[in-house]
Amino acid sequence: MSDYSLNITWRSELRSACFFFLLLLAAALSLPGHALAEGRQVWLLELDGGIGPASSDYITRNLAAAEAAKVELFIIQMDTPGGLDKSMRDIIRAILDADVPVATWVSPGGSRAASAGTYILYASHIAAMAPATNLGAATPVAIGGGGPLPRPGGSDDDEGEQEGSSGTPTTASERKAVNDAVAYIRGLAELRGRNADWAEAAVRDAVSLSASDALEKGVIDLIAKDVETLLAGLDGRSITLERREVTLELAGAEVIRIEPDWRSEFLALITDPNIAYILLMIGIYGLILEFYNPGLGIPGVTGIICLLLAFYALQMLPISYVGVALLVIGIALMVTEAFAPSFGVFGIGGAVAFVIGSVMLMDSDLPGYQISLPLIAAFAAGSLVIFVFSIGAALRARRHEVVSGREGMMGAPAVALADFETRDGMEHGRVRVHGEIWQAESSAPITKGQHLRVTGMNGLVVEVGTEASPAPVSD
């Protein structure tokens, strides 16, 4: 073989080796930072507060990363009053389909897994609680219906007020919601081998349990006061996943606490109903200001960005389209009052529609997903002032006669200060217009004190003509 052939073969092998190395490097860099560490790992993620789109995205993304990193155990440390049904179901679907064991741990002491948290606890492969914690109260909240659904057994307050005070839901929609929730949580309980009867009672009667009672009734698997106790109690336990069965080996495992990234924090910020509402209002105001005074640019760009962020947030929240319609109609009526004054009819009607639409905007009775009433009142009053008074005053000023510049000079009364002299076939002299002295010219003879009218302008020289009747202008 020639030296030339050896050289070609050597270069080809070098290129192949470099390409293979780059592939390995790219694969390593594509994994989360925690996945590059050696040894068995346990990831711990804190879920604190209401369950919404941000927490759902936060958990599902990190759970997918935990699968890719092949961690030994994924722990959700929970303290929640509940949350949105859609977000809860997204989390549960991710847990059920996960190829990594998931333990939901209600901790620290004083925490709770209420409402949606109970469902997530039941769906997890391992359910654990710290001392002095509780779970339950899983009765579904009526979406847009004015509060929790009636509990079996009723209460003294509603006795005699409605049929069905014996304890069963009184409408078809209430029965549908309760039965759907019961079937859902019983299915989760049967899948994990937990107490299905108590789960049904948590939905129908909104009952709750302490940690010790939950362990006694077979609702949870163990009680652990800290992470070390939790891992010690789970070491060696067999877990059945969707596609395989694993035995936990947690002795000496490294516990890595997952911190929220910028995406999770940003999503949590804009999906707050109050923030989404503010973004929506700023977007609407910005576009109206840009349309009213085109060419500014900043209001229009700001308005478009805020509207897009608001739409992105609202499409993940339970909104009422009737509320959105009333909100838009209210703003339109207040704008109409500015353009066509109607002695306050449009303005007051718009303000009322604006307030009602804002209150109805969030189609949920969960406390964490309501728009603040003081915020609504502030925007309603501000909108009324901006659209009815500020823009109305500006529009009225536009309709007034122009009193400055070339437009203000045309047709203005004038008086001759002296007899005009004839030059180049025109009469030339000086006149007083709006209290100012101007050089003037005319095609007709002009005498001192004669009342005139401005008919045109030629640079800094006004053209004047005689008027039919004297104007009340003094020199």
Key attributes of the depicted protein:
5-stranded mixed β-barrel; 15 helices; 3 domains; 475 residues; 6-stranded parallel beta sheet; disordered N terminus; alpha/beta; elongated; 2-enoyl-CoA Hydratase, Chain A, domain 1; OB fold (Dihydrolipoamide Acetyltransferase, E2P)
Question: Quick summary of this structure?
Answer:
Helices cover 47% and strands 18% of the residues.
What does this structure look like?
This protein folds into 3 domains: 3-264, 2-enoyl-CoA Hydratase, Chain A, domain 1, CATH 3.90.226; 265-399, no CATH class; 405-466, Beta Barrel (OB fold (Dihydrolipoamide Acetyltransferase, E2P)), CATH 2.40.50. Helices cover 47% and strands 18% of the residues. It has 15 helices and 19 strands. It has helices at 3-30, 53-69, 85-97, 116-123, 172-192, 196-204, 211-216, 227-234, 262-270, 273-292, 298-314, 321-339, 345-360, 373-399, 405-409, and strands at 41-48, 73-79, 102-106, 112-114, 126-129, 134-136, 141-142, 147-148, 208-210, 222-223, 238-240, 245-247, 254-258, 413-416, 421-423, 426-433, 436-442, 451-458, 461-466. α12 runs parallel beside α14 (373-399).
